[in-house]
Amino acid sequence: KEKHNDFSEKPHEMSRIKKVIGIVSGKGGVGKSLVTSMLAVTMKRLGYNSAVLDADVTGPSIPKAFGIKEKASGCEFGLFPVKTKTGIDIMSINLLLENDTDPVVWRGPIIGNTVKQFWTDVIWSDVDFMFIDMPPGTGDVPLTVFQSIAVDGIIIVTSPQELVSMIVSKAVKMAELMHISIIGLVENMSYFKCPDCGGKHKIFGDSHIDEIAQKHNLKVLAKIPIDPKISAACDKGMIELFEGNWLDPVAKILGG
Ligand code: ADP
Q: So where does ATP get bound (predicted)?
């Protein structure tokens, strides 16, 4: 695998990982974890082996969305990811902490190191697509993660409530700095489809995502509606059952 920078670490020698996609956002709460989970599910449904590396150490929400109750196990060679019901490999800090509700109050360098170990010390045996739920923003921690893991491309998740123009500019700069290509943008909470009238309502107003994408020569890959069924599926740990084909265009690009 081609190295993206001088700092990137080698994955565990028993790991076999083909493609690594980072999912980034400007701040928390826009649906980055949701998009990460749904991408892993979408690729799994298409027959690929998919995995999620939960690098959002201070707000880990991946295990809950998949309803994972067990903890990660290890052997003398390394740690094993936990498999979801449909066979997606997951590693998250919550699979290592004894108590899920313990807050992670570590400082940046420790968090960076933990994520690095999810890459170097976990045995990811046969992964076609690994999706990394990145820490939000473009600060120290996401930068460290990008430096230590050879990411093939990133997907930027935005929502219409944000200053999307600024977030996209920052993410573009970060990607350039790290020599990582941007696969495109996903707009979450784009609209609400009324179950009664069938009309599409733009709850947060017009988003301007298309103009912003065009300005940076990026693709808008998907627009995901606000859907109470999505949040219910996350809450119940049943994200693998989500209905909707919003991310199929992304799958097409990734699958080639
Ligand atoms: P982030 O990873 O960006 O912090 P999450 O993916 O954890 O955000 O999403 C925050 C919350 O919003 C979660 O409870 C999630 O279920 C909910 N949510 C995200 N996107 C949608 C959506 N399109 N429709 C309904 N609920 C959503």
A: 26-33
How many C-beta neighbours within 10 Å does residue 168 have?
22
Domain 17-241 falls under CATH 1.10.3720.10: no
Q: Residue ranges of the domains in the chain?
A: 17-241
pTM: 0.95
31 CA to centre of ligand 1 in angstroms? 4
Checking if the pLDDT of 3 tops 80, the result is no
- Which of 24, 34, 39, 52 to mutate to test ligand 1, by most ligand atoms within 8 A of the CB atom? 34
- Note the pLDDT tens digit of each residue in 97-129: 888 777 787 888 888 899 999 999 999 999 999
CA of 30 to the centre of ligand 1 (A): 6
CB 221 within 8 A of CB 155: yes
Give the separation between CA 171 and CA 156, rounded to whole angstroms: 8
Res 8 pLDDT > 60? yes
In 76-152, beta strands by DSSP E: 78-80, 82-83, 89-91, 127-133
Whether 22 has a pLDDT exceeding 50, the answer reads yes
